[in-house]
Amino acid sequence: QKYGVNELRKMFLEFFEGKGHLAMKSFSLVPHNDKSLLLINSGMAPLKPYFTGAEVPPRKRVTTCQKCIRTGDIENVGKTARHGTFFEMLGNFSFGDYFKKEAIRWSWEFLTEVVGLDADRLYPSVYLDDDEAFDIWNKEIGIPADRIFRFGKEDNFWEHGAGPCGPCSEIYYDRGERYGCGEPGCTVGCECDRYMEVWNNVFTQFENDGEGHYEELQQKNIDTGMGLERLAVAVQDVDSIFDIDTICALRNKVCELTHTEYKKDENVDVSIRLITDHIRSATFMISDGIMPTNEGRGYVLRRLIRRAARHGRLLGVKGNFLAALSNTVIEGSRDGYPELEEKKDFIFNVLTKEEEQFSKTIDQGLHILEEMEAEMKAAGSSQLSGENAFKLYDTYGFPLDLTKEILEDKGISIDEAGFKAAMEEQREKARIARGVTNYMGADATVYDEIDPKITTEFVGYDNLSHPSRI
Ligand code: ATP
Ligand code: MG
Ligand code: MG
Ligand code: MG
């Protein structure tokens, strides 16, 4: 029996509602009153005040399916089976209520009984000296000791900047030998795609003050996170997150619009997956009020859109194609996120404007870059000067990492310090000649006609930042 993504999300939330949890709507991707994070990257991030005790939670047991962005994973996207810059994190949380025993038991019950994964393919891990968690897995759940892995701080101690943190216990799913790297030491914890981490159970018992000092929290908490897409990979028994029902529909649309076929050529596939991923991120970010700009999260969005546009170019796309793709994102996810449907026209407008703006300069920019490469070759250099990288950024709208990506395959690096210096100089000039905002070769006010109320300072819509019952 195979469950769809939208069904799995519902099953998870209902399972934990059945265990006394309050199901809350996903919070906005834009953090609320939290300067330590650019974008929400886990289910617990928007719940921090409940963990620290700064705010009283609506109930001691809460469950969510949270929209997440992790740009730190961008290098993996398209290359591993399990990473996206956007994903949905299913979570159950206890604020000083239940602790390890219940959390472990319920995660096992959900995976093996509710969605029916094969228990013999599941492997738990615990933090090195967490014998309490080890014993629960071993004695209560009945997992043989040699199937429970003990890992160190890097994998099994969870923290994100300042705030609550603690040891954790993760659950891995063995997808089978054909997904393995084939190295002799390949086992649970290997970075390859065979043993896929699906669920992280964090036992939040400390508070990190942001400078490495840990204090035992008065109330012990549970914070768990399971990637919905990865759960679907295991349940649907498919190759990667790009093959699960909802994302597969989007991937097919990418192929249709780029006139490509999936699984014919690995380089083409990487581009297909990358576009598929980035358009999901962009669609959700815009629906939460983020606009493409040159700072902060707006710049994250701009980079994602432009990277997707450039890979579209690589596949031979001529006109705009991102808005059409976001339509498929919306169709696939509006079940869980009605705001997508509500903001549909707005999302299309923002994407189309950004794409049009970039397409005015991208071909020219690529041409200039080729000339720069020829000059470098003639001079026997394998480093692009900061000045030239800045020219591409400023005049042709090439985010630095886009230029970097293009040059990487050719063994050319960039003088990044020089780039930063050129950028600073430009900023200083702009400060002097106030009112001049001609970064990225474009008029920064171009978005004002879409909705003047929405700026980079925008911090989410009320109905998103104030949780309500689903
Ligand atoms: P990995 O080691 O595979 O990169 P992680 O240890 O960084 O995962 P956690 O921070 O523990 O992940 O997040 C909890 C869960 O969220 C993971 O167990 C996984 O199911 C999911 N997850 C994390 N990062 C991603 C991602 N980039 N794309 C999809 N799902 C993710
Ligand atoms: Mg990771
Ligand atoms: Mg991990
Ligand atoms: Mg983890």
Secondary-structure element order, as H and E? HEHEEHEHEHEEEEHHHHHHHEHHEHH
What small-molecule ligands were found? Answer: adenosine-5'-triphosphate, magnesium ion
Please estimate the helix content: 40-55%
> What would you report as the Rg, rounded to the nearest angstrom?
23 Å
Q: Which CATH class of the largest domain is shown?
A: Alpha Beta
CATH architecture of the largest domain: 2-Layer Sandwich
Tell me the overall shape: globular
Distance between the termini: 27 Å
Contiguous runs where pLDDT drops below 50 for at least 5 residues: 436-470
For CATH, the homologous superfamily of the largest domain is named as Bira Bifunctional Protein, Domain 2
Q: Would you count the extended β strands for me?
A: 11
Q: List the domain count as a whole number.
A: 2
- The total count of helices amounts to 16
The helix/strand class is: alpha/beta
* CATH fold-level name of the largest domain: BirA Bifunctional Protein, domain 2
> Which oligomerization state do the chains in this entry correspond to?
single chain
Structure notes:
The chain contains 16 helices and eleven strands. Residues 436-470 have low confidence and may be disordered. Strand 4, helix 4 (131-141) and strand 5 form a beta-alpha-beta unit. Strands 1, 2, 3, 4, 5, 6, 7, 8 and 9 form a nine-stranded mixed β-sheet that branches. A two-stranded parallel ribbon has the order 10-11. The protein has helices spanning 5-17, 48-52, 100-114, 131-141, 153-156, 228-236, 245-258, 266-287, 296-314, 322-333, 338-342, 344-378, 386-396, 400-408, 416-432, 462-465; strands at 22-24, 61-69, 86-95, 122-127, 149-151, 157-158, 163-174, 195-208, 214-227, 383-384, 413-414. Helix 7 crosses helix 8, helix 9 crosses helix 12 and helix 10 (322-333) crosses helix 12 (344-378). It is 44% helix and 16% strand. With 470 residues, it is of the alpha/beta class. The two termini are 27 Å apart. The protein folds into two domains: 5-236, Bira Bifunctional Protein, Domain 2 (BirA Bifunctional Protein, domain 2), CATH 3.30.930.10; 244-449. One magnesium ion is lined by residues 170, 197, 200. Keywords: Aminoacyl-tRNA synthetase, ATP-binding, Cytoplasm, Ligase, Metal-binding, Nucleotide-binding, Protein biosynthesis, RNA-binding, tRNA-binding, Zinc. It catalyses: tRNA(Ala) + L-alanine + ATP = L-alanyl-tRNA(Ala) + AMP + diphosphate.
